[in-house]
């Protein structure tokens, strides 16, 4: 125990010396266009880096892209050091999370400001921060101008969704699917967001188009400061689940739009939350409550059965997700897939809804609306 303490003190002293030698003080630097600046030791070691702002989880992902698996992060505070050790008990990171919180929210969420200088303790990494195990039937086409960071968000989000399907539903995608990532706005006119999963009913081919220069993709990053995570980790998972919906029959003209989008939104957050440290329950709740609070009470889930109703308000996705959270309380995960298969097999969505979720759509709508005041 004594030897470990001495070792830690030695590292801390070295880190503090490095920070002071280079005149690095918390937020003194203005980072450039790259998210993480500094030379990172791919074989393990200590690095001084400047972070362009955002949650620690994203800093770690950016470092991992360059071969540094961050085991701890240290910043200067009042002439001393405070550190963050990923996965450590709350008490270990207490000083760090007390300094770096999200807005005034009570749950400590380390979100570092723009230009934060830090010492990273790196372990050797085997490669980029990508989740393995994508099916061979899914192909990626990445434009030359797409940044490594955006490509990693999209590959990771897709792989996280695939991993969820395998673990929760016993299997992922099996059809031929294509994920295309554009850097020049190509595909941006497909939807308002420039991101969509589409299907060809005759060949069962799913296509996702991303435009990383589209304003909505870029704007997703602005949610980091108020909510403590980057929604771009969930967007690719959401779109990947649309590909799954194509396979199980849930991309169907008779299924309400709020169910199609709400299911993909619900599953994307479920999948991302399974990956430790990406999104907490509190962060998800605040994000979705914020979005739902922007939807007027006159816009009900029932009014969002049509595409026009669903896409009238940006917060409709959040409201639809909250709807699914309430719908699935006490339900088996399989209920969603069984609902889709029923409808694809010829049953009306209302009949399948009642059979699989134990209540009529009308009864659910009434119960859900009674809870909406709590979303504000």
Describe what this molecule looks like in 3D.
A five-stranded antiparallel β-sheet has the order 1-2-7-4-5, with helices on both faces. 43% of the residues lie in helices and 16% in strands. The protein folds into three domains: 2-124, no CATH class; 130-246, no CATH class; 249-376. The protein has 376 residues and is an alpha+beta fold. Strand 8, helix 4 and strand 9 (177-182) form a beta-alpha-beta unit. The termini are far apart.
Write a concise keyword list for the protein shown above.
single chain, 376 residues, alpha+beta, 3 domains, 11 strands, 43% helix, globular
Query: Which strand-content bin applies to the residues?
Result: 15-25%
What structural class do you assign from the helix and strand content? Answer: alpha+beta
Tell me the count of domains.
Answer: 3
- Total strands: 11
Short structural description:
The protein has three domains: about 1-125, no CATH class; about 130-245, no CATH class; about 250-375. Helix content is about 45%, strand content about 15%. It contains 14 helices and eleven strands.
How would the blueprint of this fold be written?
Blueprint: H1 2-21, E1 36-37, E2 45-51, E3 54-55, H2 56-65, E4 68-77, E5 80-84, H3 94-99, E6 111-112, E7 116-124, E8 138-142, H4 148-169, E9 177-182, E10 196-200, E11 205-211, H5 215-220, H6 224-227, H7 235-248, H8 257-274, H9 281-293, H10 307-310, H11 316-327, H12 334-344, H13 349-357, H14 361-371
Parallel strand pairs: 8-9, 9-11
Antiparallel strand pairs: 1-2, 2-7, 3-6, 4-5, 4-7, 10-11
Helix pairs in contact: 4-7, 4-8, 7-8, 8-11, 9-11, 12-13
